[in-house]
Hints:
- Helices cover about 70% and strands about 5% of the residues.
- It is mostly helical.
- It has a six-stranded mixed beta sheet, with helices on both faces.
- Helix 2 (about 25-40) crosses helix 5, helix 31 runs antiparallel to helix 32 (about 530-545) and helix 45 runs antiparallel to helix 46.
Amino acid sequence: MKGLKFQSLQFHLLERHYLPFKSLTLSILFVISTKLLQTASKVNRDPQTASVQSSNRRPTSISYSELLSQCTASKTLGAGKEVHAHMIRFGFLEDPNLRNYLINLYSKCGCFVYARQVIEESSEPDLVSWSALISGYAQNGLGREALLAFRYMHSLGVKSNEFTFPSVLKACSIKKDLKLGKQIHGVAVVTGFECDVFVANTLVVMYAKCEEFGDSRRLFDEIPERDVVSWNALFSSYVRRNCFGEAVELFLEMVVSGLKPNEFSLSSITNACAGLGDGSRGKQIHGFLVKLGYKLDSYTANALVDMYAKVGKLEDAISAFQEIGKPDIVSWNAIIAGCVLHEFHDWALKLFRDMERSGVSPNMFTLSSALKACAGLGYEKLGRQLHSSLIKMDAETDLFVDAGLVDMYSKCRRTKDARMVHRLIPKKGLIAWNAMISGHSQNGEDFEAVQLFIDMYKEGIGFDPTTISTILKSIAILQAIKACEQVHALSVKSGFQSDIYVINSLLDTYGKCNQVEDAARIFEECPVGDLVAFTSMITAYAQYGQGEEALKLYLQMHDRGIKPDPFVCSSLLNACANLSAYEQGKQIHVHILKFGFMSDIFAGNSLVNMYAKCGSIEDAGRSFSEISERGIVSWSAMIGGLAQHGHGEEALRLFSQMLIDGVQPNHITLVSVLYACNHAGLVTEARKYFESMKESYGIEPMQEHYACMIDLLGRAGKLDEAMKLVRTMPFEANASVWGALLGAARIHKNVELGQHAAEMLLGLEPEKSGTLVLLANIYASAGLWENVAKLRRLMKDGRVKKEPGISWIEVKDKVYTFIVGDRSHSRSKEIYAKLEELRDLMSRAGYVPMVEIDLHDVERIEKVKLLWHHSEKLAVAFGLIATPPGAPIRVKKNLRVCVDCHTTFKFICKIVSREIIVRDINRFHHFKDGSCSCGDYW
């Protein structure tokens, strides 16, 4: 109903503005004249008209002109009408000069019915009358009415002058009527007024507002004597176009020319500094204002507050705000929005309350900012109060406020309320749809987010890069590669494939869906790779085992001069951890120090993880001690590292310290604790931790926890108890559980358990050849050679393919890869010569090859050769010839290290007096002085 009334009123007003220029009816004239005479008969208390009323002398045209000038300057319409009534009473309305004063008054006050009546009553309205009316229309934003008045004036043969042209050109700017603007320009050229500085300045603005910036600049350059208004006209146009850098350059050029800027110059350029985010330059402009002694008007003061707020200098913004005597709604909005922009939400809400106490009523923009603050702080109760205030205001719907409500409820984890608000929006704009999709995504409702996008698409609602980026985030979590491909196709079809946000989101999604090749293709086609693009690609490489590619890409990023952030350093450290690239990990550590990222929790945690996985638990410990605020990830990484390196008791001591510090464990921490108990042989302690998980820490045991307990019981020889735990598990045992039992069966030579565990494992992971290898070892240790032969034939027939063993070693910042019998290395001759030398030394020390573990159907001498050329032995031999004497040798293997290699390394470490650190699929083995840290159980 309110909307219909408003539309009706609006139409009526427009109808009045567009009335044809013809004489008003006698009845209308009679009504207006009667009202004015009635006004004149009342006792006037206005000081501006008191002198006329109280004087016994007949008023003169000079006194009327002075009074009308004062009323126009102060826009005192009531007093002006009384003066008009006096003029009618005393017969001064025929004076053309006084009529022009009246027309000017009514036009400037926006009272166009009276202004046009005065014109209609004139026998021959002159140029001044028409100029006043046209100027009034233009100043009140009524461009169409101004142009209609100009056309009518022109049809009467009244010629324009230097005062008419600026108003008409301003009307063309309002309507963006370039065609008519060019015609007016032509008339100005013909009549010689183009050189007038006022006309020239308005032409500059008109062309700029009609998007003809080349012509605007050309006209500016042709102005012979530019004044400050000329400069203001041009660089304010650049500011409106968001060409902030060009605006600042023009301002500096103006200052160098010796022209003193005025308040408008400084406020415009302050807005340019805000757009550039250049707080230093903005402060210089503020200094200009103070130095030049300008008294801050509200427009300039608000521009300063807005600039400081947008560039993040909130203390300066508040200081500038406090200097405003009576802040208006624009002032409050600028400071509140600035606080919200930089996530000082508590400040924003305090200022909002101060504003209400000051008596300034909030508008839609204020409420939108307040809702964002509530969303940022999770203040659901205050958000609901604001929602209630909006309902009571019964205001017209606002797209940003609607979206703000959806966002607030979503961030307060009230998606049901957010959906209700979204559903009740009468005309949902793209902002509201984006807010709701983002709300689902933020609350882990990724399927709902994708479904809403589908619904939105079916309704024919358009989308933008924000929509694409948000929906791709949910698709990445869902690992829905087909959906990713469809959204990718949509982005190409819609022309968003070049948008950097869409590109980065596609990179991230393809990477998280394990489609690294597709991600790499998008990255290569990316016109300008920024930090986010490099981070997404490096993370994808690191997550899916292509650490070398991740490190190569970082070098490209460095060559382009792109400074890393803590997140990309964290991804690079993970790549180094997966490669066991200790030296390269140390270099990334140096970069973290260089760029000042040591205080970043992600970088700190990744350093602990990297050093632990690269075999240097000492460096991991030092990195852990340097983390100022340790979270659960920090503690879990260090406890897990100690456990993997066989330092079980130390890991448990650290866990106790974590509890003392008030940090509660998560399920990953407790896996590490049980793992530590396992490798320290602490069965009683493990039982205590396992059985108290739910009661003490509120964590239900998962598959990983059961697997650790079963492995520990199996290692301790408690096989019956281990099987009982398998049978009483609340879920089906997975491969980790059966793998733990198979390992226990091998250690304790339990054929029956080994066969059962192997059978279950092959059902779950039929492609894994390691299961048959371990079972064959169990058969061989029990002397069941016929069974060993069957397994050999099974593997030979190709029904189960043996996964090739691969080993990696890092030497001088390069990672080298070896496979069994590898001769591709440039120093192969030296490597094999070193192995023969070591074999001789080991044979003298009592080494005997364990040929029974080899399942190949070949002669013994060939088995010895195959055993001796395992990938990890080749890697260690290369390390011995390529690294300085005494330096530790660090090798990574993709499979469980075999028994023969394990025995070999115990001999080698003693013979060469070197520590050999081998990281296999299960744990770390530190070979030193003839023994291993695993205690021969792995």
